[in-house]
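Sequence in, structure out.
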Amino acid sequence: MTARDFLIVFISCVFLSVNAVAQDAQRQRKAENDFLTMVTNYTAARDYNLARKQLTSLVSSDPLNDAAWYYLGMCNLRLGNNKEAIDNLKKAVSIDTSNYWYRERLAVAYQADGQDELTIDTYERLLKAFPKKTDLYYNLVNLYLRHGQLDKAMDELDNIEGAFGKSEQLAGMRYQILLNQNKPQEAFKALESFNEDYSSPDILVTMGDYKMAEYEDSLALTYYEEALGLSSDYIPALLGKAEVYRQRRDYPGFFQIIRGFISNPDQHPAAKAQYLSALTTRSDPAFVHSFTPQIDTLFEQCMFLHPVDSTVLQAAGAYYYGTSRRDKAISTFRKNMDLYPRSKMARMAYIQLLGSSKDWEGVISTADEASKYFGNDVDFEEMKVAAYYNLGDWNKIIETEEKIISIAGSDTTVIIPALSTIGDAYHQAGDHKKAYKAYEKVLKISPNHVPTLNNYAYYLSEENKKLKKAEAMSKKTVTAEPDNPTYLDTYGWILHLQGRSAEAKTYFKHAMLYGGKESAVILDHYAEVLYKLGEYDLAKVYWNQAVSKNQDGKIADLEQRIKARLERIKK
């Protein structure tokens, strides 16, 4: 080979080598770009299914790509595929054991899968490898607390304090753990120890609350005052101080503090609403009655400062309703709903208030109006069903429940009670055939649906038909709920109708122990059973109770029938 030929071959080899390197670099850049696209799908686009598909393909071609295994695990974790996530993250950890985030996310995956022992073990190993990661300490403390390992939790708090010093958070956690260990005095001393070295309004308020619970109001007031010295508008300290005054019956002092709190425009309206609600619902009713004018002023001031705040309006409406000012309550809830027409909670609260006022037409119209904002919403349709029931409009109940079923799709938790209600409505309307057909549909989906079994059985007993079938259905209900007086009544009555009154008596006696004495129907049935057994004096006792409970006339012929029974007894 001549020198010239050798030079040509050499240059060609160099060119091919350079070209191969360039191609490798290009492939590497493409792989990196593809991986970045996958990560973007995970982090920015949050398209976890797409990222999962792409990453699965990547780890198949590049099984030593620890980052790909990590992100695949994260995709599965986001999608709720916990066991797959654990396998993926374990793979990432096996490739790079030094990566903190791989191991930390593996602990999270174990926790999501309910494998608490492995979660704790993983965190404990991580803490040994990364002793300066403060989050690990707190994660372990919370895990120990969740499993009742209070001593381990306390040891971990000591480790945190030794490594990073005292903190308000540590003091609060130590206090709660000692209380849970039934060591209240040690718990308080832990707060005192912290307070000797550091100043914290929150810790001081906790100390004040502790002393209030011990009926040491003077000491409690001292701690609240000290907290206010550090932060003059600290709400828990202000309210704690006010509570001391209220306990001492220093009502002028109490209302002076609360007026200052309510009239402060810088305080959050939700905090004011929450306090006023607690004050009026948890206090002795005599206190609310005695100081209604002062409490009215507090609510008026709060609504003046925050006229469109939903939490304030709801609290005020509930207060007016609780103090028997229904019209004012309705107007307040109505205002809240009108201000926030797309708030389901506001509309539901208003409808419930209309229902408690027996304004059934108002319930229906307001629930109908909801469709403008919420479309076909099952909750509002069910409100209408309740209203139609109170109006005795059985056809509308059936129509509305059929609409609910159409909305529900395949959701049997909605379909089953809707069908059951349709059966009840048909029965009330006198169409027993359609009622039983609806009940059969329910039992086909859910053979042990107790309310349907009970109603179906009871209505058969009213017609004195198919008593063996009724007994079998009713037996299921008393097996499922052996202390339910309604179900015990149905079963006992069916036994009685079959001539088994002695057996029936046992179930009625049990029903009497669990609320049966509150029902005229159950009392009357028991009396009939006793009458059949010849226990006339006891039958009279229960008939007398049945009459006293039958004020609504639910049993139309009760007194006439009792009179006839007593005449027979005399003869």
